[in-house]
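User: quick one - fold this with magnesium ion bound?
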Amino acid sequence: MTEKIKVSNLYKSFGKLEVLRDISVDVQEGEVVCVIGPSGGGKSTFLRCINRLEEATQGEIILGAKDAGNITITDPKININKVRERIGMVFQSFNLFPHLTAKKNIMLAPVSLNKMKKAEAEQNALALLERVGLAEKANNYPHELSGGQKQRVAIARALAMQPEVMLFDEPTSALDPELVGEVLAVMQKLAADGMTMLVVTHEMGFARDVADRVILIAEGQIAEEGAPAEFFTNPKEDRTKEFLSSIL
Amino acid sequence: MNFDFARVFEQLTPLLWQGLYYTLYVSFVSIVAGMIVGLISCFMIISRYRILRILSGTFVWVIRGTPMLVQAMFFFFGVPQVLRMVVPGINETLTEILPFAVNIPMLFTPVQAGILTVALNAGAYFTEIFRAGINAVDKGQNEAARSLGLTQWKTMYKVILPQALRISLPPSVNQWIISVKDTSLLSAIGVGELMQQTRIYAGRTMINFESFIYVALWYLAILSVLMILAKKLETWVTYDRKN
Ligand SMILES: Nc1ncnc2c1ncn2[C@@H]1O[C@H](COP(=O)(O)OP(=O)(O)OP(=O)(O)O)[C@@H](O)[C@H]1O
Ligand SMILES: [Mg+2]
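Assistant: Sure. Structure tokens for the protein plus magnesium ion:
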């Protein structure tokens, strides 16, 4: 196994507010890591630092890129757009482009970044929609889709650039309970296909069943990490016990 | 008291057809130019460069803070006068360089000065309209596009603007209407538009009441057509007809 993402001593402050403190995480290729923790603990900020939607205040994040060796994401001199092509991101609020159909949402990045010709991107989009079980929704606009369908299109859109890593920030938190399953199923399939995934989630069932490793981030620090079986049944830290009991 | 609508209808109508040409021509060119100016100025005002923000902020401030009539007079009478003083012999020089004779005493024809004035006014208001439109687009849209690897420009062009322009449509229609009406002020610098034609006619014949009612009806007709077209446009561009 090779290292896909290496976060070393990451700090992040918003003004005086220190949100992340000394976070270090290694994610191996093909690994699924679930990040859990209390609200405001810094989970989203951590994820957003990885594709530099937030600039780290201190520390280093390295992407082990397939063809380009190691890329230091936190290095201000790199072309961040090129790095983002390799890292897909899925948001809690879907953020589909409302003026484009499902298919066009997926085609936008590959076509406008000249990664694919239009016809090729269209084939790719249809294949991805098939993969997330929405082949028949290709020509529907986002407002014509249910929440679960929107999120599945958003996943397909993130996959269109053929990323090496996928980041999920609470992908099911905005969904009605009965729609959560269809999105988790897509993610589970993606994990089974070998995608490297970092998933912020409140779905403990998913973390237990799909994650290779679970990380608890609370008050800006990693409180505990470990394999899900161990983490959930036999947590070592008091902070973890407290958090787990608060959500059960 | 006798009203003489029949006479006004007969005599003023041909003059208003001439005026209509100028009203429509000046309105159209000014609105198109104003929207381009507004878009550029809006990009400047949201840019990260202070100097661009200051430039476009000043532009909006001055245009909004001064009467249009003053601006029109300034461009038509004021600017050429200074040009002639600052650059003596400018007529001769320009005539030599350019393929046509230049006569700076006026610099701009009334129509040119008129278009300049209405366009800059529209531009200042469109700056604010477009900025509000861009601000109204959810910031998650920007994040989604950027996280796909799109540059700031591509994000603006492919994701933000298509949504912002739709949001801007109703206030834009409003500004189109205002700009058309603004052209009536240009009679003060002699643009032969509807208002100017009517003023001349009414002054000559002393038939004021009927003349101004008649031209008002013409404006009402033009703007009604504009409003109907705008409604059609608004339905046509909505992707989300549910709300
Ligand atoms: N752009 C910002 N400016 C200032 N403070 C911010 C900003 N973004 C996040 N914060 C603060 O950073 C802290 C961590 O926020 P973050 O969104 O990372 O938490 P989270 O663990 O994802 O919480 P949740 O489970 O509610 O999504 C919070 O206190 C939040 O208020
Ligand atoms: Mg969050």
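One thing worth noting: The pocket of magnesium ion (ligand 2) is lined by residues A 43-44, 169-170 (CB under 6 Å).
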